[in-house]
Amino acid sequence: MQKRKKNRAHQASSVLPWIPPDSPISLSKAIRDRISREYDATGVFLNIPFDDRYSELEMALTSTLTAYGLTPHIAKERRRVEVRLLKIVELMLTCKYGITDLSMPNRMNMPFELGLLLGFGRETFLMSSKRYSALQSISDMNFCDVYYHENKCESLISGLSQWIERTCSKKQISTRTLIGRFGALKAAKKSLGEDYHKLRLDQIKSLLGIAQEGLRYPAALHPKKQG
Length: 227
Hints:
Blueprint: H1 2-15, H2 29-38, E1 40-47, H3 55-67, E2 71-73, H4 84-94, E3 95-101, H5 109-119, E4 123-128, H6 134-137, E5 147-148, H7 153-167, H8 175-192, H9 201-209
Parallel strand pairs: 1-2, 1-3, 3-4, 4-5
């Protein structure tokens, strides 16, 4: 256990960028130490819209990433009171990878955070809903590959799994299996209603882990019936 913590801290310290002390995103020693402690080589920072219209695509991301043993992280999961930009930078640096969706060109924080991810050297899967829409936000993206999912979860799952198997994981999982896993997560959300949003990532993993057994959830995860 001690050796694992030491290796994780060394891994994190080797990827922490040098940031001038007068920069708006300068990291205090406490934050750098926290990044070293919490650095996750399976972590993926999700630079995606916080929007109800995006909820199913977010579920497709979660179900696919966890199938490969990767851990999605998103800024809204943090609970500490802190400056928002520093919170985002810390979470990015805690992750080894990134995913950015530029489907909503009016959301300028998406391309801004993409710039940070690339500046920090994070391997990033870049996608958008329709062809060339990403270039409305950043014309410089002409030089790199952008995956277009057309707002279809099955398409997103297919493209994302190809990137994961090239970049992040030695696992090979069929698209059919991954789409089935996404369907299981949708069924879980429908069954649990508003309680779905209270689930932690480990509970979501648990639900997906037993999906092939007919979506029988642990009793603790069932919403209580009224009356």
